[in-house]
Design goal:
1 helix, eight-stranded antiparallel beta sheet, 4% helix, two-stranded antiparallel ribbon
């Protein structure tokens, strides 16, 4: 667990003049728990972050929460290793509260918020050797349920139309193979998962 407080000064401001007159702060708490011993061949961790941050920088007219900050974020990651078949499977869930975004129709600067962010991901890997190379075959899918993910909005010049900023696809798939030439690391993987 970690608590922190940071104060910023001399941040870059673009208006009314180009100068280092901006300021701000960030305070919060990070909690992280990882366990590889309670359950045989299982590795899991939980993380949570709360952050209260405000800045007056760049083109900001006042001190507000920046658009890249989510008040609360959390993740849960679970991995299970099956040593007899040299395979692992994993599941992860990520959550974040909505972030502020600029809406030219709202008189409150960065007064609107995106929807909360959710992502449930799955993966599997198989360890083997090809020749003398330690090899891992991997398959993964992100955002399995296809949650709508909104990072913000882009508005037309007159503010009448808006376009969602988000990922290019609801889900992504990855199939790959990684090869490590040199020392065989198979025993390291098995020992780390027992």
């Amino acid at each position: 667990m970690e608590a922190y407080y940071k104060k910023y000064s001399q941040l870059l401001k673009f208006s009314p003049d180009f100068a280092n007159t901006g300021d701000g702060y960030a305070q919060g708490i990070d909690v992280f728990w990882r366990d590889k011993k309670t359950f045989k061949n299982v590795d899991y961790w939980i993380s949570y972050t709360f952050i209260d941050a405000k800045r007056n920088w760049h083109e900001y007219p006042e001190t507000v929460q920046p658009s890249f900050v989510a008040d609360h974020t959390a993740s849960l990651v679970f991995k299970k290793f099956f040593p007899k078949i040299m395979t692992s499977v994993g599941l992860s869930y990520f959550y974040a509260t909505g972030r502020p975004y600029y809406n030219p129709n709202n008189p409150v600067f960065l007064g609107d918020r995106t929807y909360d962010f959710h992502s449930l991901n799955m993966n599997a890997s198989y360890l083997t050797t090809i020749g003398k190379a330690f090899t891992v075959f991997v398959i993964s899918v992100t955002n399995v349920p296809g949650f709508d993910q909104v990072y913000g909005y882009r508005y037309s010049y007159d503010g009448l139309r808006r376009e969602t900023i988000g990922p290019t696809a609801k889900r992504s798939f990855f199939i790959g193979m990684f090869m490590s030439f040199g020392q065989d690391r198979t025993k390291d993987v098995i020992n780390n998962n027992n």
